[in-house]
Structure formats: structure tokens, C-alpha cells
Give the backbone structure.
Amino acid sequence: MSETTVLAGPPERLRPRDRFTAAYRELAPKVTGYLRARGVDDPEAVTQEVFLALLAKPDEVRGGDEGLRTLLFTIAHAKAVDHHRRRSRTPALVEYEPEHDRRVTASAEDDALEAQTGVLAMLTALAPEYREVLALRIVAELTLESTAAVMNRSVGAVKQLQRRALIALRTRVAAEAGARS
Amino acid sequence: MITDASDRDALVRGLLIESDLDPDDEVLLDALQDLHALGEGRAPLPSAAVATALAPTRARRRPLGRRGATVVVLIAAASLGTGLSAAASPAVRAGAQHAIEAIVHVVAPLVPAVGRGTAPSDVTEPGTRAVPPSTVPALPNPPTVSTTGTTPGAPVSSDATRSSAVTTGAGHGNGIGNGSGAAHAAPHPTATPPMRSRAHSGSSHAHGAALEATTRTVPSAAPAAHARGKGAPVSG
């Protein structure tokens, strides 16, 4: 599934610094998108933490580009889990949200971002493992094997989980469309 | 990384086929493509810690090519040869000296003409104060009204010059133009600093003295003669 272009080529010909730079340019947007899909509050800042953790583990990068991706999203997965655990221990703070204020009207920027927030809203409504498998397969573009490695499950289990997640997503989207109409 | 729309569509359809679902399900296709868009875009700005680990992106300087190395060698050889011949032969040194003197001879007359108004220290004598170029005002027009009955270029008294200054409103007659040097000792109370500087020089600007008169300073005993020589018209 993954078709890495920047990291293509024999890894031994790239210096570690250049390889890290290529990995950041290629995979940082996906890590940020994955963390956003997982509901992390500050995905850009956590992305930096993920790459710093990757920098501290140069010996654990094995298996070429796919191995690098797997390790990177394993770190991102752990960071997301840490984030949700930490957030569950802290009191929930409710901030003022303009979109919930009936006294204001939506801006053009809000309308443009509606599709993206709609996807996030749909993901939020799914079970955490469904959200996890969809984010890893679609946002991070990981293979079934890499997704299984990140989620610490078998490939068959991931495949079944993925199927159930897609059906749940479709049900949710259809219900949302029916509610609008 | 998949960024093309057709590749993205193929990815999503492959996922649906893999899960034994309808690959043409528009509802799921749209939702999954929106989900895929979350991972697109540019990388976020790296933090300071990450940026130190990233390779610099600036272009490297090209190393000196063969042509550049040849030019450097030729210049070095020419410089070395010239230096050795100059050290060995007195005739070469004499020729070089003559050439430098000729250049100085050509250039030297131009220097005072250019810097006459900007280098007053060249003619400043001990005990006098040079007038900085910034304090030298523009050369005023000669007064058109003479209260003493003399020609405009003649030395006039301090009072006369003051009255003409009042008449013209130029304010340039305070303690200057009398050619006696008295203004240096007791300048008029209304004299402005630039005017005082002129009075200090002892020259008479009221009759169109050259700008060099404002830049040259002379001892206090000489201003009268100096003013007459520079600015006094020939009577008759």
C-alpha cells in the first residue's frame, strides 16, 4: 500500500541525517493527520515528539522504508495512547466554541473546513479500535502487516476489524445524511 | 506517498475490496477520501530540537573548477614574477616610481579643486579654528541696497551690514563683512552659529567672496587685508 518516493533507494546509501530529513518531509504530514484522526489535541507538537523519539532509536529502524514507517507509527500510536490516558486523568475543560454560539454565523473558512471536521466528527463517533485501524490504513497508508504490528494484533484480526470499522462508518455516514435530508 | 487523486481512489477501492465491500459505494468512497486527505499537505514546521537534526537544505557551493584553478595559478605566477623582477633590477623600481609620480602629478591638481570646499584643514594655520563643511552656509547674494553709499562690494561697517541684513531678511550681516576682524571679538547678539563661523574667518561674504574664503582661516591680524584682497572692489 505504501509507495514511498523520497525514501526510495538503498537505505545504506543514505546518511542517517539525510534519511531522517527525508522521513520527516515524507511522513510528518501523515503522522500529524494520524494524530488528528486519533483526537490528539495538539497533533503538530506531538508530531515533533514522535520524530524526536525516532531520532533516539536509530538502531531499531530495520526493514527499509516499511520498517521505518512501522516504527514511526508505533511511536505515534504510543504517543496517542499516552495523550488519551493523560487527558482521562485531568479534568475536562470546556472552552468557548464559537460554532456552538447561536449568536454568530459561520464564516467562509468554517464552511470550507466543514468536510474535514465532518470526517473527524464521524471518526469520533466510532469505537477507538475502529478509528485506529482506519487511521493507520488510510491516513498513514500502512499495509495490513504493518498495521497489525502497530496494533499488536494478527493480520487476520486487523482485517476483520477493518471490515467492521468500514461498515460502522458507512452506517454512521448514512445516518448523518438521512438526518440532514 | 499517495497524492494523486486516481491513486487515492485506487487505494480506497482496494481497501473496500480487501474487506469484501462494494468498491463503488459512493458514500464510503467519499468518506474515506476525506479521511485520506487528513494525511496530505506539507510537513509541519519542525521544532528547534527536530530542526537541529534535519539536514540543511541550502544549495552547496560549487567547488572551484579547473578553469578557476588555472586563473588563480596564472595570477599568482604573474604577481610572483613582477615582484622578483622588481627586487632584482633597480631599473624596474625606477620605472615604477616614475609611473607612480606621473599618476600623482595627473591626479593631484584635481584634488584641491574637488575638495576645496570640503577640506579646510589644508590651509588652517595654528591658533585658528577650521570651519567644518557642514557649517558653511550657501553663498548668499550680495545685498542690493547699500546704506553707506559705497559699492556693494566695498567693505562696510558692521552697522551698515546689519541694516542691510535686516532689509533683505537674509540675516547674514551680523558681525561679518566689515573686514576688520572685530566681529570675532564681539559678534552681534543675533548672529547665528554659521554666521559666527564666517565672522571668525574674517572674510567678507557680502561682496561675493569665493567659497574658499570661508574655508581658509587666517590669524586675527590679517582679516582686514584679506577681506580687501578678496572682496574689496577696485574703487573708482
Remarks:
- Chain A has a mean pLDDT of 83.
